[in-house]
Amino acid sequence: MNKSKWLIMSLVAMMVFVLAACGGKNDNNASSPSASAPAVTESASAPASEEAPPAEEELAPEEGASLVVWESKEFRENMEGIAKAFTAEYNIPVKVEEVNEPDQINKLVNDGPAGVGADVVIFPHDNLGKAVAAGILLENDYFQDVTTAENSEASVKAFTFKDVLYGYPRSVETYALFYNKDLIPEAPKSYDEIIEFAKTFNKDGQYALMWEITNFYYAYQFLATPGGYVFGSGSTDPNDIGLNNEGAITGAKMFQKLKEILPMKAADATFDVKKGLFTTGKLALDINGPWAIADLKKAGINFGIAPLPTIDGKANVSFSGVKGFAVSSFTKYPNAAKLFSRFASTKESQLNYYTELGFLPSNNEAAADPTVTADPLVVGILEQFKNSYPMPAIPEMGNVWGAGQAALTDIWDNNKDPKEALDNAVRQIKEANAATQ
Q1: How far is Cα 128 from Cα 123, in angstroms, rounded to an integer?
Q2: Which tens digits make up the pLDDT trace of 258-274?
Q3: Name one GO biological process term (predicted).
Q4: Full-prediction pTM beyond 0.90?
Q5: Nearest to 344 by CA among 42, 81, 49
Q6: What share of the chain is helix, strand, coil (3-state, %, to 5)?
Q7: What is the pLDDT of residues 162-197, one digit of tens each?
Q8: Where in 274-318 does DSSP place strands (E)?
Q9: Domains with residue ranges and CATH for the chain
């Protein structure tokens, strides 16, 4: 095995386990939030444990079953392919409806009781606590052993709430720095370098750097890297909010400074706008995730992926997460829905997601497959993943996204004082938390 391939496989092994460090606030004295992760005792490339085989008898679907699955617009076509394969094997019709993954839990809360919700949903793990509190998901009971045996410990923990497994993990992810090698041969190491690069590159509709500016998922890096955090006590204490501490305010000032090189309204920096600029050579650097890799390859772009730029010399702390399937508690066909969730989250399906969409597998064997480890683009994502921070999964996390985005929009679009904007965001989060207790 050559040195580069060994490096990639080592990084893959690290990635599928590092989320086991879920929790713990971002202490400015620590090198990264994952520093307190328990020691890895098993290789991610190890095959599924022989002590936890699949159930002896296959789960029988209900007679006349049919299913509705929700999926985001950009991934719908792929999911329709998975659905057709499932139908061919089980003779169960599946309809894929377009609902963005981050919106699915909120929609199911309303649509489920009305009998118009999906049977199977796909969502990031930070929504799990809210979903469980609302009573809208069924446990992953029948396939619990095989799910636990085949997927990384971290991804299983991400979809476990109060010792109960609800999800069927599909992928692990964070975001990193994509760079067009024809425009900038080497990835900048710091935001200060990017600012200098922009002085000569920004002209005639060209931009040095872009990201979804006030999307809190991407913008969290600016608050967290200098020492901000969402919730304390292992991301479980909603009363300890660190989004307006000294470190967060320092990072928000850097965030505000970047408007000098990206002079546009926050709402204009959408995923599609970034993609269009990057693929036409008008954007040199894009903060994006593994889901963008497949389309850029198809477009023939000469690009690389590197860790996010440092802030004041500190390694950048991005949000990371796990996405997976879960079965609605309102489904009329729970057995069929569980069968689909299992079918859509196997090693084979996860390799399909990687090949077609660029999703990084949570399945141990899929993560160690040569299809994944032979791709040098994976290294940049995995390097960033080492410094990532798992999104909190307690129900109160649902109160953070809107308040955080509003504060960042005020800072960016309205030039509001960062401390004032973040103080207001924390006040809103605490008020929302109190209202739900």
Answers
A1: 8
A2: 999 999 999 999 999 99
A3: maltose transport
A4: no
A5: 81
A6: 50, 15, 35
A7: 899 999 999 999 999 999 999 999 999 999 999 999
A8: 283-288, 303-306
A9: 67-173+320-390 (3.40.190.10), 174-319+393-436 (3.40.190.10)
